[in-house]
Design brief:
Distance between the termini: 90 Å
Number of strands: 10
CATH topology of the largest domain: BirA Bifunctional Protein, domain 2
CATH architecture of the largest domain: 2-Layer Sandwich
Mean pLDDT: 93
Order of helices and strands: HHHHHEEHEEHEEHEEEHEHH
Bound molecules: phenylalanine
Largest sheet: 7 strands, mixed
Strand content: 15-25%
Low-confidence stretches: none
CATH superfamily of the largest domain: Bira Bifunctional Protein, Domain 2
Shape: rod-shaped
Length: 341
């Protein structure tokens, strides 16, 4: 074996490595030169004991130098293949950090719910509590306790959806037709003075351009010893001016009828300027709590006097934003709803 042989082996290895296109081929080529039966290993093994120690030593040195050169060539190629792989990944998995971020869209409250929150906030700021109540009521709370006995013609003012089952006392169950049953429920739970509002969903059978089978109301109840219609009018006028953010609002009480108030009145309002100016708009039912109703609240009608009102949230919303078709509130058309964001 001469130095020419070694040079040839190194050159062969270099070429073989350079031609290896991937790691698997490269590692197989490595075995051909550096493995247990590889060319260089075989050479080292052939340095038998019978050789002159001087010769043996110098040949050994030469073979080891060749081995180092082959290993260096192998490592160069390993690195080249790894770099090429990395570059390929970098271009194929490219991330454009200048792209705008993906944002999730933010929802907003339905206009009627915005009215609901506004009403709560305004009445709360003038000393009213906010109380929630059940949408499934007994016939007693919805009608009888509110002075509409069974078979009384006044019941036909509000027809509703009845449930097939009765409550544990055998009372008929129905979807409440108004928030007024909360007057009784709440008054029975607390003691006067009472200054509360009860916003909530209500249901009736009628359904047309101006009536929906489900709608929202806010009930107001004020019970104390020395209050009058003037107090109710003051509070309600103040509420309307805050709600519509306008000072040019006039309010009048027009005689009306409800079984649970006596006397009863419709509250009408009028804008002095702008849209709807000069027209009286009916905005709420109201009245002085009927003595029979006070009795059903377990209150002494000689000591206490009460005032109540019930207003429609859809109606207030329509007037505030100038919406003229009630049905748009229930159609879930985003083009309509987005206007209130
Ligand atoms: N509950 C009545 C209705 O729904 C409104 C009302 C409430 C009237 C309170 C008087 C007092 O029509």
């Amino acid at each position: 074996m001469g130095s020419l042989d070694l040079k040839r082996i190194v050159a062969d290895a270099q070429r073989a490595f350079d031609n290896a296109a991937d790691t698997v081929t490269l590692e197989n080529e490595k075995a051909r030169f550096l493995g247990k039966t590889g060319a260089l290993t075989e050479l080292l093994k052939s340095l038998g004991k019978q050789l002159d120690p001087q010769v043996r030593k110098s040949k050994g040195v030469c073979i080891n130098i060749a081995k180092l050169q082959v290993e260096a060539a192998l490592n160069r190629r390993r690195k080249a293949i790894a770099d090429a792989l990395m570059n390929q990944r970098l271009t194929s998995e490219e991330v454009d950090v200048t792209l705008p971020g993906r944002c999730s869209s933010v929802g907003s409250l339905h206009p009627v719910m915005q009215t609901w929150e506004r009403i709560e906030q305004i009445f709360n700021s003038i000393g009213f509590d906010i109380v929630d109540g059940p949408e499934i009521e007994t016939d007693w709370y919805n009608f009888t306790a509110l002075n509409s006995p069974e078979n009384h013609p006044a019941r036909s003012m509000q027809d509703t959806f009845y449930l097939n089952k009765k409550d544990e006392n055998g009372r008929a169950l129905l979807l409440r037709t108004h928030t007024s049953p909360m007057q009784i429920r709440y008054a029975k739970m607390t003691k006067p003075p009472i200054k509360s509002i009860f916003p909530g969903r209500t249901y009736r059978v009628d359904s047309n351009a101006t009536h929906s089978p489900m709608f929202n109301q806010v009930e107001g109840l004020w019970i104390d010893k020395n209050i009058s219609f003037a107090d109710l009018k003051g509070v309600y006028t103040d509420f309307l001016r805050k709600f519509f953010e306008r000072k040019d609002i006039l309010v009048r009480f027009r005689p009306s009828y409800f079984p649970f108030t006596e006397p009863s009145a419709e509250i009408d309002m009028r804008f002095e300027c702008g849209r709807n100016a000069g027209r009286w708009l009916e905005i709420s039912g109201s009245g002085q709590v009927h003595p029979h109703v006070l009795r059903n609240m377990n209150l002494d009608h000689q000591r206490y006097i009460g005032f109540a009102f019930g207003s429609g949230l859809e109606r207030l919303t329509m007037l505030r934003y100038g919406v003229d078709d009630l049905r748009t509130f229930f159609e879930s058309d985003l083009r309509f709803l987005r206007q209130f964001v």
